[in-house]
Amino acid sequence: MYIPRLSHVAIPLALVVLTGCGEAPAPSQGGGTSAPAVTNRIPLPAEVIANLGITFAKAKLGRLETRLSVPGRVEIAPEARFSVRAPASGRVVVKTTRWQRVNRGDVVAELLSEELRAAQQALVHAQAAIERADLDLLRARAETAPVHALAEGAQAAQAAAKVRAQAAEAALKSARDLETMAAARAESTRRLAEEKGLPESTIYVARKDHVEAQAMVLDAAQRRDDLQALLPELALRTSVATSKAETAVREVAILERRKTALDLAARQQLRALAVMTGATTDDLGREAGGKPAWLELESISLRAPSVGVVVEVAVGDGEWVESSTTLVRIADPTKMVFHGEVPEADAARIPADADVHIDVGCAECASVETKLSAPLSIADPRTRTVRLEARIPGDGSAYADGASALAAVLLARSPNEEVLVPAASVVQDELDTILFRRDPAKTDQVIRTLISIGRRSEGWVEVLSEVGEGDEVVMAGVHQLRLTGIGKAPANGHFHSDGTWHEGKD
């Protein structure tokens, strides 16, 4: 350090001996001129500033921040890296080149695959099965109403037969009662004829009535027996008709469920084809010329999933590839993140959404203010470090992928605002803590100022006295000024805030 060059500039220093605060200086003996006044101001002409490389910084009012420095790198975000893979085996036709910019939906490759044909055939069979199920369901629904009518007719006939059987039973009982009465009458007529000699015709009539009553009993018994014999047959017919009606209802329900299953299978096959081709189910199902679009596909167009740059073409044109083979890799350089690692002990001190200041290691890269992505990841079991991630806001294409960076993670802020100056502006001179404050009235002078400080952090110091917001303080060159000793108060006095020097400590 070459300090004596400061002596090339004349800096007059006057020593004024005062007997006490507020007293006038004593006259010099012998009538000569008085000694120069003692001052804490140091003249700094432009040539001195240039000679020592002195720079100034402004004091600011704020809360002192405690930050953790984390080295790392700026990378393309993981979700901004894309791989276009073959959805099936086949031959590939490459439609792009490396470092080509692509937009979302641009075709980057085309795949000719037999699996596409198999999927189309499966869909054709599924559609045919659905149409067959529609026909079966139509027929079953058409048969349901007549079968129900037959069941209802059989139930009505069975009920009517039961009523007639009950009437026939009642008629048989009446006929038997009448036959009993006719028999009793015929017997009484015969006895009267024997006792009183009634004419034969009277006996004949009574016997005739008895015979006719017997014939009526036989007829009533026959009708009753016929109806009773008919009831089981009608019951069987009713049961069969009812069973057919219930079966028809269940068959319709079964056919409806079958059609639902076939529809679901067809939709799943269409969705699988949509995944394979990258198209939507609506686009595949749209008809053109009386045929669905999926039936007209001849190859699978593989499209870019996002805007970005093709960073790798992994296959050659016309090459046979298997399913899931990576064909093209695409990255979006506008979405960048900072990645760094901290010891797991430090990770516990970091808030989940802490503010982060990031300086990227390139000359023209601007600093970034962002926040940590929450939550913090789990510690690596081998290195016992925790990975930090912070999103770079806006367009991050100005930063190179993998560029080194240094992040300052905010851990805490002081509760109260204080005057803050750069830590490089504050120096220790024996037991005194000092800085050199620029005189706002005379900008070519600085004042050697004794200060009280609070906490230090991240290159800043809390100044608790003698410095206000907006004051300029020397930063580069502060040690050269300290070593000159200029502006330092003599041991037998002190400076006031206005720069005047008085003897004594009070």
The radius of gyration over CA amounts to 57 Å
How helical, in percent, are the residues?
25-40%
State the major sheet: 6 strands, antiparallel
Mean pLDDT: 84
Number of helices, counting only DSSP H or I runs of 4 residues or more: 6
- Overall geometry comes to elongated
| CATH class division of the domain at 116-277 | Mainly Alpha
Considering the chains and any ligands shown, give keywords for the structure:
disordered N terminus, 506 residues, six-stranded antiparallel sheet, four-stranded antiparallel sheet, 28 strands, Helix Hairpins, 6 helices, alpha+beta, conserved putative lor/sdh protein from methanococcus maripaludis s2 fold, single chain
3D structure, described in words:
The protein has 506 residues and is α+β, with helices and mostly antiparallel strands. Among the domains are: 4-64 and 417-503, conserved putative lor/sdh protein from methanococcus maripaludis s2 fold (Beta Barrel); 116-277, Helix Hairpins. Helices cover 36% and strands 27% of the residues. It has helices spanning 46-52, 114-196, 200-277, 281-285, 344-347, 478-484, and strands at 41-43, 56-58, 60-62, 65-76, 81-85, 90-94, 101-102, 107-112, 287-288, 291-292, 300-303, 308-313, 320-321, 326-331, 336-343, 355-360, 368-371, 385-391, 403-413, 418-422, 427-429, 432-438, 445-450, 453-457, 460-463, 472-474, 493-495, 501-503. Strands 17-16-19-4-15-18 form a six-stranded antiparallel sheet. It has a four-stranded antiparallel sheet with strand order 1-23-22-21, covered by helices on one side. A four-stranded antiparallel sheet has the order 3-20-25-24, with no helix packed on it. Helix 2 (114-196) packs antiparallel against helix 3. The longest helix is centred in the N-terminal third of the chain and has 83 residues, at 114-196. The chain is elongated. The protein starts with 40 loop residues before the first strand and ends with a strand. 22% of the residues are buried. Mean pLDDT is 84; it is low at 1-33.
